[in-house]
## 1
Amino acid sequence: MKTTFYCINDRFRIPASVTLFMSQCRAITVCFREFGIKFKFSKFKQFDSRLTEIKKQLIYSIEDDMKKFFILVALLIGNCISSSSQAQNFTVQKYSIGGEGGTDYLTAEPGTGRVFVSRGSHVMVIDGNTGIVIGDIPATPNTHGIALVAKYNHGFTTNGGDSTITMFDLTTLITIKKIKIPAGGQDGIMYDDFSDRIILTNHSKPGTVTAVDPNAGVITGEARLEDNSPEGAASDGKGKLFVNNESKNTIQVIDAKTMNVLNTWPLDSCKGPTGIAYDRSADRIFSGCSKMSAVVNPGIGKIVATIPNGLGVDALGWDPSEKLIYIPAGRDSNVTIVHEDSPDRYSVVATVTTMTGAKTISVDPIKHVAYLFQPQYGAPSPNAPLDRNGRRPRGPVIGAFLIVIKH
């Protein structure tokens, strides 16, 4: 008798075989046969003995005892997930880059290895595989962030120095046009695939979110916020944007089409929220804060989990297929790496050392590599005037490094 089996997630109808893809158990392949079952693990070899025993129990008659089969598979998957943190090994590479200028955000281009790094007055493009500088985008005064839109072959930089964004060709890196942003205070930037818009978070008075058509390079809308210091923005892919307000310790919800503010949620245990990401499969928002980051359920607008991490967080990285959150801490010189075990449960799987000041991060979701960039500064001149906060400015840049985290 020939039996047809169904994929556990009900998305595919597959006769004879099913492949389950899991966040930490790479390619668990379950092959069904008329007289037995074979399991193949491509990553966790420690399960070999367990698999042998499962095969013995299942080889007799699947059709007569399907309940046993699904129970055993569930146990196997549970073991894999609970052991995944022990199996992971993160490595850190550090490339000396040099060059002029400080830094703020950086952006990894998915799958290509190119890393776009803000350097104050220009954007440096680095091959993340080799640490070699392969390009440069000039004339981006006081640049902060970079967003890439592959469908139009366009990239964008936020330039706080002249209240513009630069639109450039992704292939040639040649500037196409500069777009004036009347609100000023350009800082964060991201691309929302739902509305097909570039989204800017501006340190204006009041703080604003500006939407820009990534093909035509024209402003299409603006939202006014409650805070003069909006930081990161994230999209749920269904029409809502979420913005961290660093000074007010809140998240504001924006309609991506109308640019109307829909709601404001307090982040009481998450002080100074900056970096943000959205898990579309679990419908959870990750807000990066110094010392303690937060997980928010957008269905109720409340924190449902917290994550301990270091001090000096200014961004957050998210690898959706690996279910890994990367939280960089510039003051503590490290990155806390967290696994999403379930929508409301999170485990710290590693804390890797980086360098002082490295507080922003970008993750390539295809290569599963995280990147940070940080200049090294010399001693300031003893005669340098104090700034408005009574501090001396940084000394000259004496080095700059690309930090690469792999696993």
Note: The first strand starts at residue 4 and ends at 6.
## 2
Amino acid sequence: MIARVRSADNVGDGSALRSRPQIPPEFEDHRDVWWRREGARQVETAYEAERFIEQVGFAACLTDSRRPGPSLYTAVCGRRDAVMPPNVQKDPEASLTWVLKDELIKRGKVYYAKLARGKATFLAPRMIPYFQAIWGIRRADEPRRLSRPAQSILRVLRHEWEMATADLRDESRVTNRKTFNAALDELQAAMIVMPSEVYYQPKFTYIWTLGVGRFPDGLRRRVKREVALREIARAFLTGAGHTIPGELARVTGLSRPEAGRGNRALVAEGYVTMLRPGTYELKDRERSRPWQTPTDGDS
């Protein structure tokens, strides 16, 4: 049985596209409630956005119905068929999402950065240790795992603590814009650096800082990798209700084998049921409500 489960969790993308399973209608309704894809619960303020992120655990910023998983943009739209228009500058829902993103960065109550695969992601504080356990880099490993441009930027930030984009580029002497942006993305993905504020005048710039300055407890808490996989899977399945092969990996950026391990840990715990290899379903939807934040798992 274990071998069959693993093979399903590791199915290649081509196979998934040829016969893509569908989410049952009752679980689309479940997702509407949890991911705020309904007009009665759509997000309109920064406070509501923070509550949404805390409830779902993690959410993308600007993805739409073409990508699975919770999304701030979809929650602002309040409908499951939301699609980002080509001209986002003139779209009121995309504009509101962007404004809320800037407010959330400034308020500093949820974590925001480009995480796995460069996707702009919000994390509830309770999820930070789990994401850190998977994608974080320990300081002792930085010389081996970070590129030289990323190390140069990090040295400056550890000395200055926070700095605007142009000043950081000059001080780090990573003057090539493409190299600098790639290094910043690298540091964000490793959960070391994050934006702390956004300014539009006199010119547009992010202010960059060390993540540990804003979320010291979450980023310093040590969690076993298997616990992290289980809790990331729990956060997704609680809101999704039902997941199909490859979906957790696609949403989170986990590898398929690790996503499978997280799902199977929830099966062993009795939190979800495996309907067939690669397909999992929440065992008791009635016990899980979006206004009842799931508790942390044991670490």
Note: The mean pLDDT is 90.
## 3
Amino acid sequence: MNTRRQFLKTASSSLLMSLVWKETKEIRLPLAFSTLGCPKWEWKKILDFAAQHGFAAIELRGLEGNLDLPSHPVFAADRIEQTKREIHASNLKIACVSSSANLYMEDPVKRAKELADARRFIDLAAALGSPCVRVFGGKEESDKSPAPDAATKARVAAGLRELGKYAATRMVTVVIESHDHFTSSATLRDVLSQADSEHVGLLWDAYHTFADGQEDPELTVGQLGKWIRHTHLKDSAGNGEKYVLTGRGTIPIERQISALHAIAYKGFFCFEWEKLWHPELADPEIAIADFAHVIGDCLGNARACGL
């Protein structure tokens, strides 16, 4: 039997979702998808597919298997103006330019390389008019501790602060993703508070804070909402061991959307389908189109879409 507190929580969530449905009935959520989900698609297909399925933006996480985006030919100095025209003609924006930079490293040489790489991505984001560049806190593979220690958090915060200063002059925000060691609200709040920069924020990977951090979305957003600039949404079955199409698993995507709506989140709702890392997943033509339908039309409720 539900306790009174559980009943009130469920009732409040249901009421909030009904308000979300009412307010988004005529205004579609601004959807995006990460190119991590379509690693074999050419640039033109990415733009065409996004436009045809009602997406407002794309997140750049590699193109045609090349994760070093600044080196890709479509972003070369003699090509980037045409690339920008193609994005504009497709009525799209670049939601985020996602790097692989990790900020936990202590070794000065390795750390300098990661920061320099992040700056290259910041420059690309600025050239494309993208508001965000993603970085990781990260951790050593050998590190089996449940959370980063104080020294690691301080290094990550210092890296964010340094990159935020660089990004500020380019009208870009550096966002740390809730991932790896950095999935708990307490850890991320410590790091973001120490970074103390208007040009540093959070990429809320709502999957990881729930599945790995064991946090309800309402708690995460309540603790970190003021820093959230971008999101990743995805679903899984069981205890997170298998990714599934949106709304068919156990991740509370409806509640995640509702929690963002409650803080008047203005960013994109981005689908991260990890096809590059998991080739066995459904093809992007299926999964990305499905996300547009389930999130765009039914706010994450696959049953409401008849699925």
Note: Confidence is low (pLDDT under 50) at residues 1-26.
